[in-house]
Amino acid sequence: MRLKKPFMYWLEYSFWNVVDLVFPPTCPGCQTIGERWCENCQKAVTQMPAQVCQVCGEPSPKTLCKRCDVSRSAVVHIRSWAVFKQPVRSALHTLKYRHNIGLGQVLAESLAPGLNEFNWPIQAIVPIPLSEERQRERGYNQVSLIARPLAQLSHMDYLPRGLRRARHTRSQVGLTLEERKQNLKNAFLADPKLVAGKNILVIDDVCTTGATLTEAACALSEAGARSIYAYTVARAISHKDA
Ligand SMILES: [Zn+2]
Ligand SMILES: [Zn+2]
What we know:
The protein has helices at residues 7-22, 39-43, 66-70, 88-98, 101-118, 132-138, 144-153, 177-184, 192-195, 211-222, and strands at residues 78-83, 124-127, 157-158, 163-165, 188-190, 199-207, 227-235. With 242 residues, it is α/β, with parallel strands linked by helices. The protein has a single domain, classed as Rossmann fold (3-Layer(aba) Sandwich). The strands form two sheets. The chain has a five-stranded parallel sheet with strand order 1-7-6-2-3, sandwiched between helices. Strands 4-5 form a two-stranded antiparallel ribbon. Helix 5 (101-118) packs across helix 7 (144-153). The protein binds zinc ion (ZN) (2 copies). One zinc ion binds next to helix 3.
């Protein structure tokens, strides 16, 4: 995997740099005007602890957490760039509600070195999709704003239609792991024409229990994908684990 920026990436994002000169952005972490994401906010990001479960990425003193020790996951590895708290929380909120393409690029550039270090044998990147209803409402999928530049930076195929929501699901906020699993059962469908035979990296903004990523991986496996990896911007860590 090379981190050299491809020409099209450079061209496209130079355009957004010009837009920044005309309409100065605001740093979502501290409201500084003229910065998409300032250096102080980047320094204030809480990295994930070094000791995590090798499969699900949950902080764990052992190589495998209790859950992964007893049942096999559909995802080979789940990893996250940062802990889900400020200023990353504000950055993801801005991405979700303000269609901030420049910020998506900044986050992709933060995620790219970690992905490069994992050295996973990935061929294509698939974003976790929104339901059609939610996408119509919002006008875009915020995960694509990160996944697309990340695919360009990592020289991988980008498959925005690799996965789709088979049905609308209720919000996961406040649900337990079991309730989340039930809520997401068969929620995704993958396109075999796009994913069969490939090693796929699934991208999402936040990982809470891993239920969404696992369900997406099941759909990809059923469509013939070879192995599935997942990487998210942030991970929600409960206080007992922190
Ligand atoms: Zn800032
Ligand atoms: Zn685990």
